[in-house]
Specification:
CATH architecture: Up-down Bundle
Structural class: mainly alpha
Number of domains: 1
CATH topology: Four Helix Bundle (Hemerythrin (Met), subunit A)
Shape: globular
Largest sheet: none
C-alpha cells in the first residue's frame, strides 16, 4: 500500500473476517457436492441431480453479490469461492460425462481447461507469485457452463421438458465453453504480473528483515 494512501480500518477488518454469509454459502456449496454425486449414481435420479447442480451454480453469483453489497468481501472468501466453483465444475462435468449425458468432447475440453488452470495456479504459487483474482470472463464462462451441464443431464431424465432442456443445454454450452477457453488466455499476462509482483514483494520483505 502506498504510504500516502490512508488505510481503511473497516475494510481491513472485513477482509480478515471468516464468519461471513458468503463464506457460509461457499461452504454449503462444497458440502452439497457429495449429495449431487449420490443423487446421480446412488439414487440414479438425474432430474434431482440436475436441479441441485443448477442451484449450486446460481448461488455462485448470490454469494458474490452479498459480499459486495454488504461489505463482506474477505481474504478467505477470495480463495473459498473459486475453489468451490472449480470443484463443482470438475466433479459435475466428470460425473455427467461418466453418466453419458453430455458429448465427450465438451467434457474433455472443459476438464482439460480446468486442469491446466489448476496446475498453473499451483506452479505459480510455488514460484512465489501473488494470488490471481478470478476474472469477469472466467466467472461468466463458469456460470454458463454450470447451467449447461445440468441441462444436458436433465435432457436425459424423465422430466416432461427434457427435449427443451437439450436445446437449452446447447444454447448455454457453446458460448459458455468459448468464453471459458478464452478466459484462460487472459490469465497468462495476469500470471506474469503476479509472479513479478510476488517476487518483488518477497525481495522487499527479505531486505526489510535484514535491516539492523
Amino acid at each position: 500500500m502506498d504510504p500516502a494512501t490512508p488505510s481503511n480500518p473497516r475494510t481491513e477488518a472485513a477482509g480478515h473476517r471468516v464468519l461471513t454469509v458468503p463464506n457460509g454459502i461457499s461452504l454449503a456449496r462444497l458440502a452439497a457436492i457429495p449429495v449431487f454425486v449420490y443423487l446421480l449414481f446412488g439414487r440414479e435420479n438425474r432430474a434431482g441431480a440436475a436441479e441441485l447442480l443448477a442451484v449450486l451454480g446460481a448461488t455462485d453469483w448470490v454469494d458474490g453479490w452479498i459480499a459486495r453489497r454488504f461489505d463482506q468481501v474477505s481474504e478467505l472468501g477470495k480463495i473459498l469461492d473459486p475453489v468451490a466453483d472449480r470443484l463443482m465444475l470438475l466433479v459435475g462435468v466428470l460425473s455427467i460425462a461418466i453418466d453419458g449425458s453430455v458429448p465427450l468432447w465438451i467434457a474433455v475440453l472443459t476438464l482439460v481447461r480446468e486442469g491446466l488452470v489448476s496446475i498453473a495456479a499451483l506452479v505459480l504459487a510455488a514460484l512465489g507469485a501473488r494470488r490471481i483474482d478470478v476474472t469477469w470472463w472466467g466467472k461468466a464462462g463458469t456460470f454458463l457452463l454450470m447451467f449447461a451441464f445440468p441441462l444436458f443431464l436433465a435432457s436425459h431424465s424423465t422430466l416432461f421438458w427434457a427435449d427443451l432442456a437439450g436445446i437449452l443445454a446447447w444454447t448455454f454450452v457453446i458460448p459458455g465453453l468459448a468464453i471459458h477457453l478464452y478466459s484462460a488466455t487472459g490469465y497468462v499476462p495476469a500470471a506474469l504480473t503476479a509472479l513479478r509482483e510476488g517476487r518483488a514483494a518477497r525481495a522487499v520483505g527479505r531486505a526489510t528483515e535484514g535491516r539492523p
